[in-house]
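Let's practice the habit of predicting before peeking. Look at the sequence and jot down your guess about where helices and strands might fall. Then scroll down.
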Amino acid sequence: MTRRSWVIPAVGTMSGVLLVVGIGLFVSPVFRNLMENRLKKEIVLVEGSRVFESWKTPPPPVYMEFFFFNVTNAAQVLEGAKPEVVQIGPYTYREYRYKENVSMVENGTEVVAYNTKSFVFLREKSVGDPREDAITNINIPAWAVMTRVKGSFFRANMVSIWMNTLRVGLLTTRTVDELLWGYRDPLLVRVSSTNPDVETFFGLMYKKNGSNDGEFVYHTGQQNYMDYGRVKTWKGQSKLSFWTSDQCNHINGSDGSAFHPLLRKDERIYIFTSDLCRSIHMDFEKEVQVKGIPAYRFTPPRSVFASKEENPANKGFCVTPKECLGTGLLKVSPCRKGKPCFAKHLAEDKYVDAIKGMSPQREHHQTFLDLNPTTGVIVRANKRAQVNILISRILGFPKTKNLNETVFPVMFLNESVLIDDASALRVQKLLLIVSVVSNFPLIIVALGAIMLVIFIILLVRERKRMTSTEEDTSYSPVSDNDKKEDPQNGTHIGLTTKAEPQA
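Done guessing? Here is the structure:
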């Protein structure tokens, strides 16, 4: 048997087998399920997994930017004028996050950890020196004390006398460093002499540098990949006690540092944030790409911070009916030791219009998460919020008699992260492997199609060869005339019988 005789059938057979197998695998989700199951087993919070070390010590740098609102008409504000502010910032800090005292429990289905954060100032990314730059704004400790004693005529008058004696005003001028990391407040020192439980230092980030926000217990995702990184308990509690409804007190979702793989666009993701002492949810907004990595952008819908009239489910966040101020505002005093603080997220226009110099824009003030849907890895994120103080007239404090009720802006913060190049390269390699394995049936079909083309070409060529051979070996008789005229046979000489001699 010649080689030509078996090559063509072999190519044809191989082509048919590849096409049948490839189409069969493509119709049947065997490889896709295989890859998904592999991801579910790899992305779990257990020792030795692909993600465990990066979960404990995230490699991408996190930056915290602080912007302060400096009051430019302080004297007029005390007389009831509309506040005028100028935003100053950013004062940027590199935020280092790491999990301490990590231990596995419940046969590896849960993991316990403390989330520790530390901050290092970055002068090159900041507008000035926080130790020198001064900001004039609301005197938060004074308002906290006045709010605490309002309703008690005796205590209010006593605090008012202390404020006059110590020359404590409703507004104060402090350095950025003092406002952030703390200073010894004279009024708090005086109050602590009668109430030792009162902290004498105040700062918006006081005691938050190098500290943690309590013990977390997480699901590892070993039993169910959808539970990967989900918070089970915080500070030993499976639900909160700050709010007035069970729904608002639920601890839902992850802590924002980990999300399960295989995300869908129609999925709602939940995040528990200890800074706000509540859970929030985010919905898919659009597809984006970060450093060549495809991602889904999730953002909190308006309903998350909507008023109780707009979203009745938020009624539980109103500790008292008077403390619900409208869409975009959340009073976080219940978990901030009674400080009269409000977090603002794109609040209603009436709150913006009450302050001259405010111009919030969605693209600069929106919180969002960009997640790779295959792995659940965070490729980019911005957590944005504004700290505000509610000011108004308080009975027993004559200094407040000219004030109008106002949600006064103090500070805007932007906590951001962008995946670093080394991590992006690892994600890209993983996605390439996933893509190759998931599309393996298509690769087999493509190889089968190529072999089919080769088979057809070989058939055509073989047909032409056989036709040519038949033409070359066929026999046809030569006529007498052709022989006469054929130059190769020479000239045919006709012979006649010799005539007999005549008698």
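How did you do? Confidence is low (pLDDT under 50) at residues 488-503.
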